[in-house]
């Protein structure tokens, strides 16, 4: 079985790439791409978010049989040290990462959002970013997405004035 991964055709090892194997395990265990994280295994947390044909999907509940010929993009293809994606630049500017575990999934969900909606409102962001973050970085995520949006629309620098609001943030998990 082969898949189109990060712009390249990749052959998955015969006998190991069963149709019901979750995409997450194909990426991590068979291909060694560990940027996509295992979080919950039931599609609830979003740590495993990747793009499938440009849409954010939870790879822990996406079987290889659902991938077919659709292109898959992982965090490894979003950007890098020498050419970071505007979201990665904004993430750093707004110091989004705390422990960092959920961040690759958050970035992939945010990239899919900005691709379909280049100027999202706070409500759009809250609706699209359903990923869970134990550290509660939601206000910074929102601010970073707004900054990246500005960069992607041609602003020379991110909007530094969109600081996170105290207490603001969607998807806050309480116990």
Walk me through this protein's architecture.
With 175 residues, the protein is an alpha+beta fold. The chain has 2 domains: 2-75, Beta-grasp domain (Ubiquitin-like (UB roll), Roll), CATH 3.10.20; 86-152, [2Fe-2S]-binding domain (DNA polymerase, domain 1), CATH 1.10.150.120. Helix content is 32%, strand content 10%. The chain contains 6 helices and 5 strands. α3 (86-93) crosses α6. The termini are far apart. The model is unreliable at 163-175 (pLDDT under 50).
Brief summary:
The protein is α+β, with helices and mostly antiparallel strands. Helix content is 32%, strand content 10%. The strands form 2 sheets. The chain has a 3-stranded antiparallel sheet, with helices on one face. The protein has a two-stranded antiparallel sheet with strand order 1-2.
In the predicted model, the low-confidence regions spanning at least 5 consecutive residues are 163-175
CATH homologous superfamily assignment of the largest domain: Beta-grasp domain
Mean residue pLDDT: 90
- Helix tally? 6
Q: What is the molecular shape?
A: globular
Order of helices and strands: EEHEEHEHHHH
Top CATH class of the largest domain: Alpha Beta
């Amino acid at each position: 079985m082969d898949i189109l991964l990060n712009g390249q055709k990749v052959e998955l090892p015969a006998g190991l790439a069963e149709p019901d194997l979750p995409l997450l395990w194909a990426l991590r265990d068979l291909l060694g791409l560990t940027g996509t994280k295992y979080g919950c295994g039931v599609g609830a947390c979003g740590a495993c978010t990747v793009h499938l044909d440009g849409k954010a999907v939870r790879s822990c509940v996406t079987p290889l049989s659902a991938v077919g010929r659709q292109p898959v993009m992982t965090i490894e293809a979003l950007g890098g040290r020498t050419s970071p994606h505007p979201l990665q630049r904004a993430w750093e500017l707004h110091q989004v990462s705390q422990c960092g575990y959920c961040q690759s999934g958050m970035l992939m969900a945010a990239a899919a959002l900005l691709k379909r909606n280049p100027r999202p409102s706070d409500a759009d962001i809250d609706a699209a970013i359903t990923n869970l973050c134990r550290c509660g970085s939601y206000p910074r995520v929102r601010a970073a997405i707004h900054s990246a949006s500005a960069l992607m629309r041609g602003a020379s620098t991110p909007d530094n004035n969109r600081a996170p609001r105290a207490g603001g943030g969607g998807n806050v998990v309480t116990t």
